[in-house]
Amino acid sequence: MLLSRRQRWRRWRRSRPFWGGLLAILAGAWICVLPLAPLKVMLQQGVAGIPSVLMGIVMVVLGLTAWFSPSQRALAGVLTTLIATAALVLSNLGGFLIGTLLGILGGGLMFAWQPYAGRRAAGTAPTDPAADPAAVPADPAADPAPPRAASPPPTPHSDPQGAQP
User: Fold this and answer.
1) Which of 56, 18, 11, 9 is nearest to 36 (CA)?
2) pTM, to two decimals
3) Which of 17, 33, 40, 105 has minimal Cβ neighbours within 10 Å of its Cβ?
4) What is the distance between the terminal CA atoms of the chain, rounded to a whole angstrom?
5) Is 51 helix (H, G, I), strand (E, B) or coil?
6) How many CA atoms lie within 13 A of 133 on its CB side?
7) What is the pLDDT of residues 14-32, one digit of tens each?
């Protein structure tokens, strides 16, 4: 069965961190465009405009990466947040704070996004053996649990957190 454009768009959008990528693209565009503004808006351009344009382009690329390679969303989210924070210092207060705030929010959304879990059909929910007595075997000896391997006792020189004595 063919899906309508709207259904295909909705399926594509939900299968990736769409809103985080969109906010990262908007933040990158905002940070990138401000140094190219007229002289009345920006008092001094100079060499300071180069990092702004580069950071903006990288943020746009990271937003597109989150869209077209959702498996890289965590790295793209962290890098977007770091670049947006660096833009606060290096690029006209991060695009007058708007670009930085959009970048931090977009990076956080990209990092926090989880893949969409398909809806379960009615009656196929996983059963809880404690709640469903029919799922528990009648004879416990018929299904013995494998024995657990005992862990060796800690030595005086081993620390679980890895600290040295």
Assistant:
1) 56
2) 0.66
3) 40
4) 66
5) helix
6) 1
7) 999 999 999 999 999 998 8
Model pLDDT for residues 63-112, shown as the tens digit of each residue: 999 999 999 999 999 999 999 999 888 887 878 899 999 999 999 999 99
- 121 backbone dihedrals φ, ψ, rounded to 5°: -70, 155
Question: What is the Cα–Cα distance from 164 to 155, expressed in whole angstroms?
Answer: 13
The pair of three-digit structure tokens given for residue 102, joined into one six-digit string: 């959009």
CB 25 within 8 A of CB 99: no
